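During the reporting period the student researcher (J.K.) took over the structure-prediction task from the postdoctoral fellow and processed the backlog of single-chain submissions. One of the processed entries is reproduced below for the supervisory committee.
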Amino acid sequence: MAYSRWVVNASPLILLGKIGQIGLLSALAGRIAVPQAVAEEVGAGNDGRTTLQAIANDSVFILVENEAPNPEIISWDLGAGETQVIVNARIYGADRVVIEDLEARRCAQAMGLKTIGYLGFGRPCQGAGLDRPRWAHCQATARDRSLCLRRFDSASFARSR
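J.K. obtained the following structure tokens:
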């Protein structure tokens, strides 16, 4: 089952950009919002321009303006990107928030948002008809490049509390 509206943070974009798999996101959601603060964070990295170009070339992605956070979100003291992901997800009624930072995940869940981490894409990939070998290749590529990864979705987070 593909989710229709996602808002994504920088870390998943950076990782998938490094391994050339931005398309995995667009295969899973009908529309993916990238807040301006997130785009700026992605663009600051070595591979940032390539990743931003891949996003710009994919019609599923939309760049959204930063919005003013309410005091409840500000009280979590998150980074600019994480804050904007949560603010935009609430404003636009996102089905999923793609975010890795533990405190940001807790904030998103406290705001009633469903979260998924980039290695939690395994199950949705299967539901969207993507083959397991392609996802296994992404995981192996990430490990080979010494990227610190772990599988983490909202269901496993809820069980660990």
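The committee noted the following: The domain at 3-160 is CATH 3.40.50.1010 (Rossmann fold).
J.K. will present the remaining backlog at the next meeting.
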